[in-house]
Amino acid sequence: MSEDGAYKTIKGEATYELKIERSVFIAHTREANSEEEARAFVAAVRAEHKQAAHNCYAYRIGTGAREATYFNDHGEPGGTAGKPILGAILSREVTNLCVVVTRYFGGKKLGVRGLIEAYGTAAGRAIDAAGVVTRTPVSRMEVECDYPRLNQVLYLLNRHGARVLHTDYGQQILLAVEVNKAAASGLGDDLRSLRQVRVKS
Predict the structure, then answer these.
(1) Domain residue spans in the chain?
(2) Most buried residue, 4, 94, 104, 167, by CB count within 10 Å?
(3) What's the Cα-to-Cα distance from 107 to each of 48, 90, 100, rounded to whole Å?
(4) Residues 6+ apart with CB under 8 A from 107
(5) What is the pLDDT of residues 106-164, one digit of tens each?
(6) Residue 111: CB partners within 8 Å, gap ≥ 6?
(7) Is 165 helix (H, G, I), strand (E, B) or coil?
(8) What is the pTM of this model?
(9) Domain 7-135 CATH assignment equals 3.30.230.30
(10) Domain formed by 138-200, architecture
């Protein structure tokens, strides 16, 4: 994670199908911003593929000290499914996503090495198919000021790299503002130091 809190994740939802020795591996991936979202995605895939032999998964949420990772082999031999799926996530340095790999068993055992390769490859290709994007966490706030203070407010917004989303001109001026989460506290403090300025975050 960079100083401004930017992180890499997938652009959108994607699936990738891999056939090995008559077994079909279908990898599904979706962005998830919490463990609850990740588990809901797993439940949805499992409901869609009830007849599948296995629906194995892994997710990674957050970065640094707040990072949460989890994987599940869903009946496959320990370490042959969930762990290689998580490995595909980590090797691409992406977070805030969940990958579920559904396996329809084709009748032929693949062995430990074969399973690890199949699950890891399917997961990695689904992530690649989804594409990777860099996101920066933002905070939104409302700033209310009188007309004489507008230039000072705009100066501070610009100094902190904030973006004005909408402006309402009434008796007072109301600005809807978006700013990098890392800069939000400093901007709020600077705005509150001005007279006749109110900030709601």
Answers:
(1) 7-135, 138-200
(2) 94
(3) 22, 31, 21
(4) 22
(5) 888 999 999 999 999 999 999 999 999 998 888 999 999 999 999 999 999 999 999 99
(6) none
(7) strand
(8) 0.75
(9) yes
(10) 2-Layer Sandwich (3.30)
